[in-house]
Amino acid sequence: MGLFQSKKKPTGRPVQVLEFKNTIIILILGATGTGKSTFANLILGDGRKNEHVPVSQSSLDSCTKDLHLVKLELPVEYNRLHNAGLNTIVLVDTPGFDNADESLTDNKIMGLISAMLEKSRRLQVGRPAPLRAGVIWVCDIFSPRGVEEEKKSIGLLTGRQTTGWGADVSERMVFTTTKWEKLKVQSDGCTAQTDLDNGLKETVGGRPWVRLNPADHEAAWEVVHTILDDLDKSLE
User: Fold this and answer.
1) DSSP of 10-68, one letter per residue?
2) Domains along the chain?
3) CA-CA distance, 91 to 141, in Å (whole number)?
4) Which Pfam families match (predicted)?
5) Does residue 176 carry a pLDDT above 70?
6) End-to-end Cα, the chain, rounded Å
7) What is the pTM of this model?
8) DSSP per-residue string spanning 122-166
9) Is 58 exposed, middle or buried (0-12, 13-18, 19+ CB in 10 A)?
10) b/e map of 175-214 (b: 16 or more CB within 10 Å)?
């Protein structure tokens, strides 16, 4: 039985305003074209297709131009998180790094995220910093940008570990690889995953990898549960 199958399926609705009280924030980050919006849609599932995020067909152009937020109920089995007053998850789909839009620079994207997280921190009534948050970093298994470019993008976040919110979110950071379904031979993906593991070893720093394979609702939730499990355990 898979991890998702042992969890109770959450429900919810889209965030209409920045409602961050009693909320766990999970950022979906990565380069343009890696499948961040597709990941968000897999989390929503077929039952919430009307809320799906537009998906880019280009590896250079980011279809997401702003932060796209979706609110989900926190699964009931996370007792410690619920007891701490945390009832919901806000999943944040972000514009892709290293995209072709000159007005949407990497620093601009980080600025959008900073503003959102600082607003969230102010609304955590009764629960001062640190934020209850995490990051899902999405990597294309084909790694078309190369390991060095991937390191540069990851450094945009990990380099903020001493500047407030960077430490809060990067403490719980999980990496996932996408596009396994495009491989003709699955063993090629295993080789590519090993290459990514080795190339990013120092940058990732022991943080977990969870393969999005197959690319479906259950596999996407396995990635999210990695963060939720760690957050819940931290309250023991």
Assistant:
1) P-EEE-SS---TTEEEEEEEEBTTSSHHHHHHHHH-GGGGGGPPP--S-SSS-S--S-E
2) 29-234 (3.40.50.300)
3) 22
4) MMR_HSR1 (PF01926)
5) yes
6) 26
7) 0.85
8) HH-TT-PSSP-EEEEEEEETT-TT-HHHHHHHHHHHHTTTTSSHH
9) exposed
10) bbbbbbeeeeeeeebeebbeebeebbeebbeebebbbbbe
